[in-house]
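User: Predict the complex.
Assistant: Input components as received:
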Amino acid sequence: KLAATINPAYASNEKKTAYKDVTSYNNFYEFGTDKDEPAVNAHTLKTRPWTVSIEGEVNKPMVLDLDALLKLAPIEERVYRLRCVEGWSMVIPWLGYSLSNLLKKVEPNSNARYVEFISLADKKQMPAIRFPVLQWPYTEGLRIDEAMHPLTLLTLGLYGEVLPNQNGAPVRLTVPWKYGFKSAKSIVKIRVTKDLPKTSWNVANPSEYGFYSNVNPEVDHPRWSQASERRIGEDGFLSRKRKTLMFNGYNEVASLYAGMDLKKFY
Amino acid sequence: MNQLSARQLFWLKLCIFVVASLPFARLVIATMYDGLGANPLEFITRNTGDWTLYFLCITLAITPARKLLQWHWLIRLRRMLGLFSFFYAACHFLTFLWFDHFFEIEEMWRDVVKRPFITVGFIAFVMLIPLAMSSSNWAIRIMGGKTWQLLHRSVYIIVPLGVLHYVWMRAGKNNFTQPLVFAAIVSLLLGIRLYWRLKKTV
């Protein structure tokens, strides 16, 4: 159980995806590449003790344990749409607070332009690390203004409880206007950097997974269309797939990309 | 085992028919009872694709197995196995047309033309249609054995296309284990034919 107050700004009236589906259909390659594998394998993940090191271009680098993270800011419940690059989506009540709360604490310096998120990569706890499917540890990144945006959630729970292991326990990111893989799971290190971080999927396949990876129905993945999506538990069998919205419907982030050609910076 | 009576063959074929229908029955029943996980439509699409490749491999294995084991009756099973390959391929195509495009032919066509992995899968499926249609004794008689055999050799192109479709699909997620297993099996099944052919000509 994890106590939280509902943030009415993000209390969606959309139908929430069933808890069972949210916790049994996951992309978490450290525990296997099939989507049912993380739920089966992730029990080996030890989420306590856990520390997150925040370092790099900051005035006050620090190492925080889980209790410190839980107390850092009031925990809110926010219902976000999650859009996977594979063309499916969910609606999930996450628990956490804006990442900006944490970043303000470490005081990024004048060199700070990007934030890199590094996930745990422990062979003993994560059986699939031995397969070289991706560059381990899993690394993701955001531009500093994206990381500071209030929508960007440092996530500690879902559906009123602490994060289940397969959903990226004990602490993960949720960036709802980007494809799901941008939201790193089981984070152990947050580095504020001057240079563009090398992100795992971008390294694996740069033409298919850009650094930005904003949800954009007009930029297709080469292998599949991004114009529509299947809402888990709702679309496809009796009704057609739904249209995907620009920025996954979070238009308040559009100003971050003013003047940028999002077809080029995909 | 080298000989099978007509009666034995009948029961064997019936058994194979029942067993080969089980994957389909399982999908139907699991769909009704919500047993296919969070994304049942993705499950059905992938599962019917998998079974198409399984049956194509089994069908391709008949001739080498017959030659190696001297079980000549195996040839009597090939037609049914080939037709099951087509059945699962048709289910696979139907899921694409239904769950991905909701029967919008024009939209589906754009997808087929634009995405190489779908193009390849679609070509393989279309090439299977004449094989399924000419799988009766009557068709063999009309076409003549030679022409019929020539037509059915197109399966040597169709199966690699099917495997390529799978490899290409998985390339987006960097996950090649299963497609490469299929590629190895198909290479073996086609390679052994090539080897025999070369040995004969030398």
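The interface with chain A takes residues 37-42, 99-102, 111, 114-115, 117, 168-169, 171-175 of chain B (CB under 8 Å).
Let me know if you want any component modeled separately.
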